[in-house]
């Protein structure tokens, strides 16, 4: 199985599309300089270094200012991929200068670049977004599936992008259920789009993927969440990686990129709805799915600083990836992570902000229906009303239900309603949650939301008299 996974991971590193070419970089010739950026438009946890950054034009603007100062003309080539693997392949070939990808692909990138050595060496220089519990990944099944937990997928085919964070979540979670991923699961190495089609066609019993695929398929009514990655309670994140040679030779350009990423992050925090609409327009993803992850209090916390918990998590993932054959050469994480450039771009508040894990875009305000201040990140949610450019904050699960009922009475159309899972804190679509009524709780806590049926069942088994109720009934009776 290890040899199979290693071969699959190597195959995954082949660039997508036989006709896809990547422009090489040119330094100095004729007073021009071309920078090639590899990104994943639909991996919306990287938008501040990819999709959103590109649409805002912040990098180009900074390069224009830099060009005026040094007499050069800079240009940017943006290359879009479905996963991080082909970005790594192109970086090792010297055809991509800066890339963004998830934590597991980052480790594969670093391992391969350290093994190849020389000009191929790469460095991780910043973070885009993260989730401390691992909720950016998940496993979904078809709506008609009878599976109640990962254990029920034993002996069945599960689609995953081998070497991705979604695949890692599947393997680690399966082990916690007493499954041997090498023997008990048939992992089919597929790109996310192919895996989603396989799930719909029934050729795959489950799909293990990274943001935004679980939320997208659930929101479209094509799947339900079987396993919430937040259950692992292991940090997951996406970051920015650069060719070491490029960083050393064109440090000012890298600083311009990181400065632009910081600008894009602040823009997202200032108006998350506008940012979600922009990303949706660029990718074709529903804005409601984008906002699930990237909105205020979203599943992803956007912060470019390299935090100790994320650095430690990366180091702890190396033995795991080697054990399943995804990386052959153990990565020395210490020299691979270089936050000197982001420190310089960020400024004097870097150390303070790097030490904090508070979401800079937490939900706040006042719940208009419950007449409460919204100040508890673990309970706060939002309702997005059609035609409104701002979401409405809600103080907690029962208050969300009351807000929805009030809006229905006013004949208002709701685009989406979001609330965190009572166990993992994973923010999910309220109408896709499994709601439990607990008569033993007070009126303010009588209805409890869970992203998965398994989590709801565990709560019910521990609370006498608790039972699952349909979302509509919970709205009527809250």
UniProtKB/TrEMBL annotation:
<feature type="signal peptide">
    <location>
        <begin position="1"/>
        <end position="23"/>
    </location>
</feature>
<dbReference type="InterPro" id="IPR015168">
    <property type="entry name" value="SsuA/THI5"/>
</dbReference>
<feature type="domain" description="SsuA/THI5-like">
    <location>
        <begin position="132"/>
        <end position="275"/>
    </location>
</feature>
<dbReference type="Pfam" id="PF09084">
    <property type="entry name" value="NMT1"/>
</dbReference>
<protein>
    <submittedName>
        <fullName>ABC transporter substrate-binding protein</fullName>
    </submittedName>
</protein>
<keyword id="KW-0732">Signal</keyword>
